[in-house]
Amino acid sequence: MNFIHTVKQAASIITLSLVIIAPAFALDLGDAKSQGLVGETSSGYISAVIPSQEVKALVERINSQRKAHYEKIAK
Asked: Which one of 23, 41, 50, 66 has the largest count of C-beta atoms within 10 Å of its C-beta?
């Protein structure tokens, strides 16, 4: 019983560590541009050049932020 408890505790620690560390490895706009994964469009937004789930999430996040900024400027 003690061994099982230790394994469960270790698994919990590993899972928590991954959840905390994962954002540090998230793709950022600069990296995506330098790797040729995204590009700027003439409309002021970015678009995926080499699509993946991670690139799609980045494009949606950045374009949402830009849209909010553009709307603020327009007001």
From this structure: 66
Q: Tell me, yes or no, if the pTM score tops 0.70.
A: no
Q: How far is CA 53 from the centre of its chain?
A: 9
**Closest to 27 in 3D by CA, of 51, 3, 1, 2:** 51
- Residue of 2, 6, 12, 52 whose CA lies nearest to 32: 52
Q: What is the mean pLDDT of residues 39-54?
A: 95
What pLDDT does residue 4 have? 77
Q: Look at residue 57 and give its three-state secondary structure.
A: helix
Which tokens belong to 17?
Answer: 């560590």
Residue 29 and residue 6: Cα distance in Å, rounded?
41
